[in-house]
Amino acid sequence: MFVVRHTGKTGCLLLAVMLLLAPLSQAQANPRYAAIVLDADSGEVLHASSADAARYPASLTKMMTLYLLFEAMDKGLMRLDTAMPVSAHAASMPQTNISLKKGERLRVRDAIPALVVRSANDAAVVVAEALGGTESEFARIMTAKARSMKMTATRFRNASGLPDNAQASTARDLAILSLRLMKDFPQHYHYFSTASFSYRGKTYHSHNRMVKNYAGVDGMKTGYIRASGFNVATSAVRGERRLIGVVMGGNTAQSRDAQMAKLLDSGFEQATRFAKASGKAAPVGKLLVSTEPVRQVVRAEPATRPPAVLQRATLPVKQTLSVQQALPVGDLGWAVQIGSFRVPEQARDRASDAARRLDNIDVIQVAVNEVNISNRTLFRARLVGMHKEQAKSACQRLSRQGMDCLVVKTSGS
Fold first, then answer.
1. Residue closest to 320 by CA, chosen among 383, 365, 363, 381
2. What does the H/E/C string look like for the chain?
3. CB-count burial class (<10 Å; 0-12, 13-18, 19+) for 74
4. Tens digit of pLDDT for each residue in 168-223?
5. Peptide bond preceding 194: is omega within 30 degrees of 0, i.e. cis?
6. Are 161 and 61 in contact (CB under 8 A)?
7. How far apart are the first and last CA of the chain?
8. Confidence band for 351, pLDDT divided at 50, 70 and 90
9. Model's pTM, two decimal places?
């Protein structure tokens, strides 16, 4: 207990500063606490506290499980209607779960909200076994994917985040994962703002109250086990700026959320000052994220073992056009539009992924075109230089693999 005996404006100011800093110092005094806030576009780290200290990720682990599921969907290896078998191991997972039974099947379209909203451990194992054959094999794939993303301090031992002394990550690594989920799968990001979902007549509500209680938050994930405390990864947008924050080790869900709100407020203020400054102030650091594709090695598996579907090699893109390069005209003036994105690199990567799926088309050209829509600059990802029927066929193939697309006329536009 302490007493402040200052009077006048100076004393009031000192007291106000002390009260403002008290929650932060209390959070930092917590030995399980760690946090990071970064600018999603520039990668600038706006705040870091024990960001590289090893922590238990708890159910933030499921973000990697979802990443690999989204990746399999984009490769055409899984679809929303794919029904995945429930093993005895999956059915044995403790709460939190959705009460799956051995012998049942769980569709991908139900597994995704089960992981995001309910944080269902049984659903996580179903996904792991469907993609990796066994949960332990899937955990090895998870760790390899983490290494490819420069999540150098992360080790996964299971797909759910249930207690395991060898499973560890850091606030910085989980921020990298959050960023990659958004940038690599913008078409799937909306799942992380899901407030509730119903399965077999029962409705489940999200534990993530940040989406509802903080203006601008549009997703990510919470997690808790006794060893970790209360964790949360959050993405929030204000104006044209998006921040990603990770808070780990909260004593309660409420104190964790309050700390995240405080860090986001401070981060937005700091980011605004950076933008207004004629000479940008030095940030805390720069987040390094690998964007190189990972080529999985195909291994021979026993005939009795389910295939590890994430180990298939990717196909090369045959030709790439630079941004703003002229589009073909005449009979070849048709294109398949894959989507519109905020940055050209994201558009190019998305179009390149689509091109890899169409490996039997003789020449595939990837184009990224800048457009202005409602005072916003966007970049359209397209596969160009096709005949009309060829474009229709390509779009149909991509649609069957779960990739949204649109056939458009490019000549004369």
1. 365
2. CCCCCCCHHHHHHHHHHHHHHHHHHHHHHCCCCEEEEEECCCCEEEEEECCCCCECCHHHHHHHHHHHHHHHHHCCCCCCCCEEECCHHHHCCCCCCCCCCCCCEEEHHHHHHHHHHHCCHHHHHHHHHHHHCCHHHHHHHHHHHHHHCCCCCCECCCCCCCCCCCCEECHHHHHHHHHHHHHHCCCCHHHHHCCEEEECCEEEECCCCHHHHCCCEEEEEEEEECCCEEEEEEEEEECCEEEEEEEEEECCHHHHHHHHHHHHHHHHHHHHHHHHCCCCCCCCEECCCCCCCCCCCCCCCCCCCCCCHHHCCCCCCCEECCCCCCCCCHHHCEEEEEEEECCHHHHHHHHHHHHHHCCCCCCCEEEEEEEEECCEEEEEEEEEEECHHHHHHHHHHHHHCCCCCEEEECCCC
3. buried
4. 999 999 999 999 999 999 999 999 999 999 999 999 999 899 999 999 999 999 99
5. no
6. yes
7. 72
8. confident
9. 0.66
| 234, two tokens | 């959050």
Q: Which of 49, 50, 59, 169 is catalytic?
A: 59
Pairwise CA distance, residues 87 & 103, whole Å: 6
* Cα–chain center distance at 287: 15
Q: Which of 49, 50, 87, 119 is catalytic?
A: 119
Is 290 assigned a catalytic role?
no
62 is catalytic: yes
- Nearest partner of 310 among 150, 127, 82, judged by Cα: 127
Residue type at 121 in one-letter notation: N
Q: At 115, list the tokens.
A: 């992981």
Catalytic residue among 49, 50, 62, 206: 62
Q: Examine the residue annotation and report whether 119 is marked as an active-site residue of this protein.
A: yes
Dist. CA 63–CA 182, nearest whole Å: 11
Q: If you count them, how many residues does the chain have? A: 413
pLDDT at 329 (0 to 100): 40
Tell me the torsion sign for CA atoms 219, 157, 96, 249.
negative
| CA dihedral of residues 160, 164, 166, 168 (deg, nearest 10) | 50
